[in-house]
């Protein structure tokens, strides 16, 4: 396996808040890496730094060997990054299919040669339907987003990110707010997408699912990397257990 993403010495301070301090890690091509840590550890800040939504004071970030830390977000997306957000914000009056078709259209506009071929709404909708199938919500394709349960919205968010045809998909708490059964189903869907070849970095608080699906873990606490390695090994580390207030880490590793 080769390295798809290399993150080196990322430091992001918001005034006196040290959100990230000298954090480095790598993501291998094809890997399913989980980024974990207690609330406020710096996980979302890290994903934002990777896509360029924020500018760290210090960072070297390479995608497939190419330095991207100076590039604007749209260039990073063009090179193969996609990020789903913790809070889902689709266009609520539009159908699920049109929401995804819009994302397909955005991608096509950015790629000059396909854009020159003209935008074809039917093609975009057909591609959108396939993407909705990939995340198992195609039966709702022609329904409006408004009124859909969170489980459907979370899957829609993944489909919209897939529409960008990323090489690396960054997921910010895709399972949050779902019950155990819904969370396990969505985690299975993400595993399937990973097995089809997409490299994934997922922030997740659901440690049971993290242990079940993650190939490797990176643990942040107070803006610093405190551990990384195979899920079972990492969850046994005393500093990782100590970082979690409450008993969720112990439960998951038992
Ligand atoms: N724009 C900002 N301005 C000021 N402080 C910020 C900003 N964004 C994040 N922070 C702070 O940086 C720290 C890390 O936040 P971050 O959201 O990255 O943590 P997290 O690990 O994703 O937490 P959670 O699991 O609760 O989502 C927190 O103390 C947070 O309050």
In short:
This protein is α/β, with parallel strands linked by helices. It folds into two domains: 1-80 and 166-253, P-loop containing nucleotide triphosphate hydrolases (Rossmann fold, 3-Layer(aba) Sandwich), CATH 3.40.50.300; 89-165, no CATH class. 41% of the residues lie in helices and 25% in strands.
Task: Give descriptors for this structure.
about 40% helix; Rossmann fold; about 250 residues; six-stranded mixed sheet; binds adenosine-5'-triphosphate; single chain; four-stranded antiparallel sheet; 11 helices; ATP-binding
What's the arrangement of secondary structure elements?
Layout: E1 3-14, E2 17-28, E3 32-36, H1 43-51, E4 58-63, E5 66-67, H2 73-78, E6 81-84, H3 96-110, H4 112-116, H5 121-134, H6 150-162, E7 168-172, H7 180-195, E8 199-203, H8 207-213, E9 216-221, E10 224-229, H9 231-236, H10 238-243, H11 248-253
Parallel strand pairs: 3-8, 3-9, 6-7, 7-8
Antiparallel strand pairs: 1-2, 1-4, 4-5, 9-10
Helix pairs in contact: 3-5, 3-6, 5-6
The structure holds adenosine-5'-triphosphate.
């Amino acid at each position: 396996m080769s390295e798809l993403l290399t993150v080196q010495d990322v430091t992001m301070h918001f005034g006196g808040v040290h959100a990230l301090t000298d954090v480095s890690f790598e993501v291998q091509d094809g890997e399913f890496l989980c980024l974990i840590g207690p609330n406020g550890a710096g996980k979302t800040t890290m994903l934002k730094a990777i896509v360029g939504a924020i500018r760290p004071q210090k960072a070297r970030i390479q995608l497939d060997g190419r330095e991207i830390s100076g590039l604007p977000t749209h260039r990073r997306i063009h090179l193969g990054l996609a990020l789903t957000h913790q809070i889902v914000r689709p266009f609520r009056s539009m159908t699920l299919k049109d929401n995804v078709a819009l994302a397909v259209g955005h991608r096509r506009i950015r790629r000059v040669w396909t854009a020159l071929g003209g935008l074809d709404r039917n093609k975009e909708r057909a591609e959108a339907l396939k993407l909705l199938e990939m995340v198992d919500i195609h039966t709702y394709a022609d329904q409006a987003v408004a009124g859909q349960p969170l489980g459907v919205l979370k899957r829609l968010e993944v489909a919209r990110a897939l529409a960008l045809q990323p090489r690396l998909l960054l997921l910010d708490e895709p399972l949050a707010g779902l019950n155990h059964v819904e969370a396990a189903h969505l985690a299975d869907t993400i595993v399937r997408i990973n097995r089809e070849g997409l490299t994934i970095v997922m922030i997740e608080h659901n440690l049971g699912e993290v242990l079940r699906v993650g190939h490797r873990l990176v643990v942040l606490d107070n803006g610093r990397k405190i551990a990384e390695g195979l899920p079972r090994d990492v969850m046994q580390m005393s500093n990782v257990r100590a970082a979690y207030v409450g008993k969720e880490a112990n439960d998951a590793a038992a």
